[in-house]
């Protein structure tokens, strides 16, 4: 990279879902845009080592489990044999297709993609250092979209060797199925990847600090979900504080004690996956030098229009407040691009869906029962089980239920929670409903195709304002 200077309307640092979507939208609105990415490929954590590769493994491992346990019931006689190398190859091809797609979109929208480490030298100037040197980018606006990295365990020194003590980055590429695995953290990442290796043959134990899995998820859904995971073979140790993770020869051990106090316990396994959350990544950006404020957790502080305390510098995605979700970052990227182009960008943070891509899936949007009780909101509940859904029976996917929460006075839907096959897709219609302030009656009176799994969503809505038909 030779020394040179170029001028832009917007320079985005980071090409994850927030960054690349912001760049594309800004380019579509007529701005001259550059994206700086420190990886060799675009797409950030999500496309390279996060959302996309994990979903490829989740789907492949689910197909393997179906072939082993369900196909015979459907009249299909097979003797499946695991070929892990080919499964990992499918994952890698999926990643390549997606990251290549981002490079194509940059070219299509005339966006300058620059590989190198970006640092804010001053408001209006980004310095990029690559393998062949450095260059300076002059710009009217800078968007920090650098995402997040593995957080580790608070107060515990964890050394990742990538083979025995691993993070989610490593857990998508284990060369063989471990006989035993300990997952530290009962959140989304730990349970998704833990379920992958469990289906492929590992004995998985989840150690979680809280007294429930899936943290902020609706309590009833969390309890039912954990029971299904136990049925699949996962073991859980809840209310457990991890005090040490140590490598012991070719294996590793985890020491933990009851959160309420008591004797410590030690578990040993072939692989320990530490999945205790992520932290904002702002290392090397020069934020302190230019005076960009961050809160006590390291998140970049912004106003309602994603602007930091320094003129011309903005931030979106995992580096700012709110859930660390790719689609939340995307929406913020679109909103910021619109604002920079003189339009009125906006994100409704009350309608951000959350999905756990296990089998069955868990999906949620809006408030939980616990939140409504805490806020003193009077509400109604409607539920419907997939055991009473004809399509679910035909597919052998009757686990789980749909739960609708609506305001007791107005019937406006305040939250929807789905545990079941395809929950991540079914949650979308309820997000649309809530975006337009819809009621459970609106949803219940909307015709749904038969037979579909989504009829369970309608039945739960009917149960909220009246009575379900099929239970």
Strand content: 25-35%
CATH architecture of the largest domain: 3-Layer(bba) Sandwich
CATH superfamily of the largest domain: FAD/NAD(P)-binding domain
Structural category is: alpha/beta
Task: Quote the average pLDDT.
Answer: 97
Number of domains: 3
What does this 3D model show about the protein?
The protein is α/β, with parallel strands linked by helices and 471 residues long. The protein has three domains: 5-149 and 279-349, FAD/NAD(P)-binding domain (3-Layer(bba) Sandwich); 165-276, 3-Layer(bba) Sandwich (FAD/NAD(P)-binding domain); 360-465, FAD/NAD-linked reductase, C-terminal dimerisation domain (Enolase-like, domain 1, 2-Layer Sandwich). Helices cover 32% and strands 26% of the residues. The radius of gyration is 24 Å and the shape is globular. The N and C termini lie far apart (67 Å). The model has no long low-confidence stretch (mean pLDDT 97).
Features:
single chain; alpha/beta; 7-stranded mixed β-sheet; FAD/NAD(P)-binding domain; 5-stranded parallel β-sheet; 471 residues; Enolase-like, domain 1
Question: TL;DR?
Answer:
This protein has 471 residues and is of the alpha/beta class. It has 14 helices and 22 strands. It has helices at residues 17-28, 44-49, 51-69, 84-108, 168-171, 188-199, 219-232, 287-290, 326-340, 369-375, 390-395, 423-435, 440-444, 455-465; strands at 5-13, 33-37, 112-115, 117-122, 125-130, 133-144, 148-150, 165-166, 180-184, 203-207, 235-237, 240-248, 251-258, 265-269, 271-274, 278-280, 313-315, 354-356, 361-366, 379-385, 401-407, 413-420.
């Amino acid at each position: 990279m030779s020394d040179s200077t170029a001028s832009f309307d917007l320079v985005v640092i980071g090409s994850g879902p927030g960054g690349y979507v912001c760049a594309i939208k800004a380019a579509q609105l007529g701005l001259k845009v550059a994206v700086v990415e420190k990886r060799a490929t675009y797409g950030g954590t999500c496309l390279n080592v996060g959302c996309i590769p994990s979903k490829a493994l989740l789907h492949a491992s689910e197909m393997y489990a179906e072939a082993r346990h369900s196909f015979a019931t459907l009249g299909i006689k097979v003797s499946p044999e695991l070929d892990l190398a080919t499964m990992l190859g499918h994952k890698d091809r999926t990643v390549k297709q997606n990251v290549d797609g981002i490079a194509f979109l940059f070219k299509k929208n005339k966006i300058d993609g620059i590989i190198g480490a970006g640092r804010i030298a001053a408001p209006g100037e980004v310095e990029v250092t690559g393998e062949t040197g450095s260059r300076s980018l002059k710009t009217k606006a800078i968007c920090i979209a650098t995402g997040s990295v593995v957080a580790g365990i608070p107060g515990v020194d964890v050394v990742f060797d990538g083979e025995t003590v691993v993070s989610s980055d490593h857990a998508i590429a284990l060369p063989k199925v471990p006989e035993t695995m300990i997952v530290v953290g009962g959140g989304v990442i730990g349970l998704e990847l833990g379920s992958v290796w469990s289906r492929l043959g590992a004995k998985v134990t989840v150690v979680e600090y809280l007294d429930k899995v899936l943290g902020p998820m609706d309590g009833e859904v969390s309890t039912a979900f954990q029971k299904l995971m136990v049925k699949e073979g996962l073991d859980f140790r809840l209310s457990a504080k991890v005090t040490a993770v140590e490598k012991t020869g070719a294996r590793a051990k985890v020491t933990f004690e009851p959160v309420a106090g008591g004797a410590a316990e030690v578990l040993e396994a072939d692989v320990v996956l530490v999945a205790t959350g992520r932290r904002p990544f702002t290392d090397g950006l020069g934020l302190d030098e230019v005076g960009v404020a961050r809160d006590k957790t390291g998140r970049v502080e912004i106003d309602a229009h994603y602007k930091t305390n320094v003129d011309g510098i903005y931030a979106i995605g995992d580096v700012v407040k709110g859930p660390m979700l790719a689609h939340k970052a995307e929406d913020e990227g679109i909103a910021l691009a619109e604002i920079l182009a003189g339009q009125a960008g906006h994100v409704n943070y009350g309608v951000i869906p959350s999905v756990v891509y296990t089998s069955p899936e868990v999906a949620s949007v809006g408030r939980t029962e616990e939140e409504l009780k805490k806020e003193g909101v009077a509400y109604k509940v409607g539920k419907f089980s997939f055991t009473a859904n004809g399509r679910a029976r035909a597919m052998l996917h009757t686990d789980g239920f749909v739960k609708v929460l609506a305001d007791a006075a107005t019937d406006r839907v305040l939250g929807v929670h789905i545990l079941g096959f395809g929950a991540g897709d079914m949650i979308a219609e309820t997000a649309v409903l809530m975006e337009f302030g819809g009621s459970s009656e609106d949803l219940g009176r909307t015709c749904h195709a038969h037979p579909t799994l989504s009829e369970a969503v309608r039945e739960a809505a009917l149960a909220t304002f009246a009575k379900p038909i099929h239970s």
